[in-house]
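hey m, so remember when u said the tokens were messed up on ur end? i reran from scratch. heres the input so u can diff it against urs
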Amino acid sequence: MKIFDYLEKYDYEQLVFCHDGETGLKAIICIHDTTLGPALGGLRIWNYQSEEDAILDVLRLARGMTYKNAAAGLDLGGGKAVIIGDPAKIKSRELFHAFGKFVDSLGGRYITAEDMNTTTQDIDYIHEVTDHVVGLESKSGNPAPITAYGVFRGMLAAVNEVYGNHDLDGKVVAVQGLGAVGYDVCQRLHESGAILYVTDIKPENVERAVQELNAKAVAPDQIYSVECDIFVPCAMGAVVNSDTIDQFRCKIIAGSANNQLAEESFGDALLAKGILYVPDFVINSGGAMNVYEEMQGYNRDKAMARAATIYDRVQELIEISKRDQISTNKAAERLAEERIAASSK
């Protein structure tokens, strides 16, 4: 890929490659936009197939954080970081110290936090060498419960739009990904009477859902074609793509995974199919809201109350989508871009 062409196309500010020979650290930090404030975005560890895959992922994730924080009404810009490697093999206190020194060198332009395959313990290690980190165990802690609550609230707004009420009893829901957020969402759905079909790359996560939530297990490549009311992507991104678009048998797509659309045009494709898509950077912004409250002086009740407003934001973008006859992802981007533009004047 032509990196500078990509940076220019989407107006990125900075892409930082980080290497430490002693620990084997191979990391990339991306700062997309700092108009509204310092770039906030979590640290993801993934065993990418290629360096180009890692670069593209961090670019897409950082831009998504700009939109997420702007649409959520937070005075924060967007950034992200990835570490390349198998999280089961490479994680160490020394590795996170090395990464933290790179974060610190940016002087507060980028604030890191927990993300896929990182924990509050990992974040605490990073905090030992830099203050530019949020999600500390001693403060807001694990953001997954707040993120899941926000996803659930956004889902209720979508259900109300499609069915005219908030009743989930008997609704069939297909959930892809049973990590910390995905499983919490499943618990809330189960308590609301939903019928769950679940999949995950880790068999033990599926078995837990089967045993505890009476869920039905589905093979990973079969989850897209489950006939259901709601498809809930809570794993990796780009799940709405040319291979899956014709498989969906749902009325709503609403989940916590980042960058669910492989290309923005798939938002139009979902609209044409009559599927209500809730943009990921709106519905999964509860985690960002949680750490934002930490930066203000953490209060869990305030974090939950802020996450509850995701319902209202989903309602607002649905109304914009209908009014302007555009896809919901374009409506959500318009909300975020207007806030950024207003701030830059």
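this time it looks ok to me. The chain has a mean pLDDT of 95. if urs says something different then somethings off w ur setup not the seq
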